[in-house]
Amino acid sequence: MTVSSTFPADFLWGGATAANQIEGAYNEGGKGLSIQDVMPKGITTPRTEGPTDDNLKQVAIDFYHRYAEDIALFAEMGFKTFRFSIAWSRIFPLGDETEPNEEGLAFYDRMIDECEKYGIEPLVTMSHYETPLHLTDTYDGWVNRDLIGFYERYSRVLFARYGARVKYWLTFNEINSVLHAPLMSGGINTPKDQLSKTDLYQAIHNELVASALATKAARELAPNAQVGCMVLAMPAYPLTPDPDDVMASLTTERTNLAFGDIHVRGEYPGYYLRSLRDQGVELTITDEDRALLKEYTVDFVSFSYYMSVAETADDSKRVIGEGNIMGGVSNPTLKASEWGWQIDPVGLRIVLNQFWDRWQKPLFIVENGLGARDQLIEIDGRKTVNDDYRINYLNDHLVQVGEAITDGVDVMGYTPWGCIDLVSASTAQLSKRYGFIYVDRNDDGSGTLDRYKKKSFDWYAEVIKSNGASLTR
Ligand code: BGP
Question: Is 266 within a domain?
C-alpha cells in the first residue's frame, strides 16, 4: 500500500557525504594532511605515524576530479540538497596558519557552481572527522583551547567566501562521538585509554564554544545562513521494565542528549554538571565562554540515525552486539545489518518526536542508511545492483519519518548517507556500500572507479518526484 504524502512541499530530499570519504586527491591542490591520512583502517587499529599506501582514502572515489559527473547523477535523481564537508586541511593545510589556501577555496567554488547549475542547495559540514594532522600532532587536537581560535578563523573564511551561496551549515559532524572515538572525532592524539576525563570533557567544551563562535561568525558575515549542530542519535531502550533499567537507559541517552541541550539551550544541564562532578572532572570555563554558549545557539538540529540499542543496569546481562560502536546492549527484538548495526525504523520516529518535544527546533536527518555488500550484475548489457535490501531499509525509515511529520514534528529534510558508494568511516572499507550509485573500487584498491546506477537509484528518484507518495507500507 502506498502512503499519501505527508512531506511538506519544500522538503529537502538529497544525499550525504564527507570530503575524506569521497574526494581522494589527499595531497593535491595544496592540501595538508588530515587525521584520516594516519587512519588507514578507520577506528579498528591505532593510528600510523604518517601516510601509508594501503589507505583507500588517498584516492577514495576520486570525487575531487569527478564531482561534475557525480553531481549530475544526483541531479538526475532530483536532489534538492547535497550534504558534503569542506576538508579543513584544503583551506588551512596545517590548521594554524593565518592565510587560507586559495586553491582549496577555489575547488569548493567549482563544486558549489555545479550544485547551483541544478538548483541543488549545498548543505555544508565544516568539520567531518578530518582535523588537520598538524593540529593533532602539535596541539593534541581539541584538548587544546588554541583550536577554538583556529576553527573560528576557518569558519570566518568559509562564511565570507561561501556565505551568500550556502544556506545550511553544520559545525561538527556527530559532535558526541568524541566520547567514543577521540582521535577521529576530536583530533585528539593521546590514545583513548590514556586520555583523562578532564581532557576529554575540556575538548568537548572547546568544541562547543567553537561551534558558538562559528554561529556568531555566520550572524555577522552570512545573515541568511542557518547553522545547525549535528549529533549521532541512538535511542537506548530499557532492556526490561525494571526501573533501574529505565534509569540506566535515561543516563545513557543523556550522554548524547547533553550535546543538543547545550547547543539549543546555551547552557550545561544539571544532570551533565552532576556527571562531571561524579567523575571528578573540573573544567576551565570562562565567563566569555558562558556568554557565547548562551547567545549563539543553533537554528536547527541535525542528526545521523542508523540504529538503536538497549541498556540495562545489570552488568551480567550486558551482551554488547558486534558493531554497536557506541557500546550499547543488543536488543533481542531486532535484526542487524551485516556489520551488526541493529535495524530499527520505528526508532527514527521515536528520535524525531523526542528531539522535537525537547527542543522545538526544526530537525534535519542528515544521515541514515544501510551499509551492505553489493553484487554488480549485468541486465540487458547494463551493469547494476539489485539492492532491494537497501530500498526496503530506506522505505521503512522514510515511512516512519512520514509518521513523525503527521505527529507534528518539523522535519526539514532527509539526506541518506553515502548517496554514492564511499570509504567507510569506522572500518575504512569500500565493500561497506551505502550508495544509490555503485563505484567500481574494491577494498584492495583495484577497480576502474566507473559509476553504475543501482536499482535504488530509480527508486529514490521516484520517491523524490512523488514527494514521498510512492513509499510503501
Ligand atoms: C557516521 C559518520 C559517517 C559515516 C557513517 C557510516 O558515523 O558520520 O562519516 O561513515 O557513520 O558509518 P561507517 O562508514 O562506519 O559505516
Answer: yes
State in Å: Cα 277 to ligand 1 middle.
32
Question: Tens digits of per-residue pLDDT, 338-347?
Answer: 888 999 999 9
Number of folded domains that form the chain: 1
- 422 is in which domain, residue-wise? 12-465
Q: Is 174 a catalytic residue?
A: yes
Pocket residue to mutate for ligand 1, from 304, 368, 419, most atoms within 8 A of Cβ: 304
Could you give the CA distance from residue 183 to residue 34 in angstroms, rounded to a whole number? Answer: 11
- Cα of 354 from ligand 1 centre, angstroms: 23
pLDDT digits 0-9 by tens, 31-59? 999 999 999 999 999 999 999 999 999 99
- Nearest CA to 6 out of 458, 366, 401 is that of 401
Instruction: Report the interhelical angle of 455-465 vs 388-406 (nearest 10°).
Output: 20
For residue 26, give the C-alpha cell.
589527499
Q: Give me the helix-helix angle, 243-265 and 345-359, nearest 10°.
A: 60
Three-state DSSP class for 80? Answer: coil
What residues contact residue 132 under an 8 Å CB cut-off, 6+ apart? 32, 33, 34, 35, 88, 89, 92, 93, 94, 95, 187
Closest residue to atom 11 of ligand 1, CA basis? 425
For residue 360, the domain's CATH number is 3.20.20.80
Alpha-carbon 23 to chain mean position: 16
Using the atom order of ligand 1, give the atom closest to the CA of residue 232.
7
User: CB count, 10 Å around CB of 121?
Assistant: 18
Name the residue among 215, 192, 242 with its Cα closest to residue 300: 215
The strand pairing partners of 469, in sequence order, are none
* Residue 278: inside a domain: yes
- Rounded-to-integer distance, Cα 314 and Cα 65, Å: 52
Please report whether residue 339 resides in a domain. yes
Q: Note whether residue 470 is domain-resident.
A: no
Cell of 50: 604518517
Residue 322 pLDDT > 60 = no
Q: What is the mean pLDDT of residues 401-423?
A: 98
Round to whole Å and give the CA distance between 306 and 397. Answer: 10
Which residues partner with 378 through β-bridges? Answer: 383
